[in-house]
Structures are given as structure tokens and as C-alpha cells.
Here is the input.
Amino acid sequence: MKLYQLHAKQSFPISRQEAWDFLSSPKNLQEITPKEMGFTILTGADRPMYAGQIIQYKVSPLPGYTTKWVTEITHVKQGEYFVDEQRFGPYAMWHHKHFINEVDGGVEMEDIIDYKIPFGILGQLAHPIIVKKQLSQIFEYREQQLIDRFGSIPGSKKEIHFNSF
Here is the structure.
């Protein structure tokens, strides 16, 4: 089974604390996820983020298909990073690291997602056609929502790269 990685960066003219306050609140994830994903938080987002927190969502990764997605916040370093891992959901594996780094003029948000697709060779065939395309669209939507909310650092560029191993 192939392992895939998405690596994304974008910068905002805000303080590390302001970025942390928004990004570490599970409630805000729904705000920066495209509406067509049918993303709804079911439980677990009623407290500030902590290691061991279990959050349950409902998501529609494909038209006509809805599933539960259960993640655990496994690591938290206040103001710097957190990690969420899928416990149940649409991926065979999902490990998402969120970093907030100070840069000239604000902060850089960095995401590193290591994931596996279910269904063996069929999943590998679907990756470039469906999964990679959908993840790109989700991150483009998120980028625009965050720019609308926080602005952008002049001259900064969003980066998104996919790798497979």
C-alpha cells in the first residue's frame, strides 16, 4: 500500500497567538472546509484542544456517500503545533501535523499530512483522479477563507506539494 504526503504552507499577517487561537479551535474547521464536503462536527469540539481529545465528524468525501470521521489530537505544543490522527474514517491512514511558525510580517502555517488510501490498487488508481484533486480543492478553499479572514503577507505564496513513497 502506497503512502502519500501533502505538504502545504501559507502565510498571514497576524501574530502566532492569533493564528493559534483560530487554528487550534476544532470548531473553526467547519468554517474553512468547503460546503460540498458536508462537514459537520458531531462531538468533541466543545473544549480547547488537548492531547487525547477525540473529535467526531460527519463528512461526504464523494457525492452521495457520507461517513463518520473520528480523529484524535495526539500531540499539542501550545502556540506551535498540534497533530491529529484518524481513528476511523475514509482513509486507511491519516496523520496530520499543523505547525505555526513566525516569519517576517506574521506567521506561516505549515501542514504535513501523511495518508494512505483504502482499496489497494483501486485506491492508488483513484488517488490522482479523485483524492489528490479533492485535497487540492480543500486546501485552495481553506487558503481563500483564511485570506478573507486574516489577509496575506505581500509577496508570500501558497505552496502545496504531493509526494508518494
About this structure: The domain at 4-164 is CATH 3.30.530.20 (Alpha-D-Glucose-1,6-Bisphosphate; Chain A, domain 4). The chain has one domain: 4-164. The chain has two helices and eight strands.
